[in-house]
Amino acid sequence: MALVDPTPAGEALYELLLQVPRLHRLLQSLSAADEPRWSISLWGLLRNIKIDGPRTVPQIARARGLTRQQIQKLVDDAKAEGLVQFRQNPDHKRSRIVALTQDGTATFQRIDGTIRDAAQEMAEGFDIQDLDSALRVLFDLQQSLDARRR
Q1: What separation in angstroms does the CA of 79 have from each of 54, 65, 88, 132?
Q2: Cα-flanking dihedrals φ and ψ of residue 99, to 5°?
Q3: Residue 134 and residue 13: Cα distance in Å, rounded?
Q4: CA-CA distance, 65 to 26, in Å (whole number)?
Q5: Is 0.85 surpassed by the pTM of this model?
Q6: Going along the chain, which residue ranges are E strands?
């Protein structure tokens, strides 16, 4: 049961939020045949390490807005697949640094390339101003949800 009376903006936002998981599933299906082990979460982990460089699990978790336990599970799975490796952390004995392996870098580049190619093809049907507006809305939603979570 809804706590407040729905408004047109509230209903539109609700429908938008429902689309995000659907988009994730469709995005994941793009590379499933070529990269059966990949997921949105794995791609996000590899992308974070590729862009920000080797980091500890807590640092990755903070950057991604996820719990340390969620990231640790992803890292453990990625390590089992040979996509990441642990390095000693000179600043902390128990919190090792997570770095990409060569296979991790290559896997990230293949997945990211597939996604970028699909984005490029699909972009042909959209106006850049509409895409910029959608991106701004998603960033604003992220910040609003982050603030509510805290």
Answers
A1: 14, 21, 15, 36
A2: -130, 155
A3: 12
A4: 22
A5: no
A6: 55-56, 84-87, 97-100
Q: For 14-31, how does the pLDDT look when each residue is reduced to its tens digit (9 = 90+)?
A: 898 888 888 888 887 776
**DSSP labels for 26-67?**
HHHHHHTTT-TT--HHHHHHHHHHHHH-SEEHHHHHHHHT--
| CB 65 within 8 Å of CB 146 | yes
Q: Percentage of the chain surpassing pLDDT 70? A: 94
Distance CA 118, CA 95 (A): 37
Phi then psi for 59, rounded to 5 degrees?
-65, -40
Name the phi and psi angles at 89, rounded to 5.
-105, 115
What is the DSSP code (8-state) at residue 93?
A: S
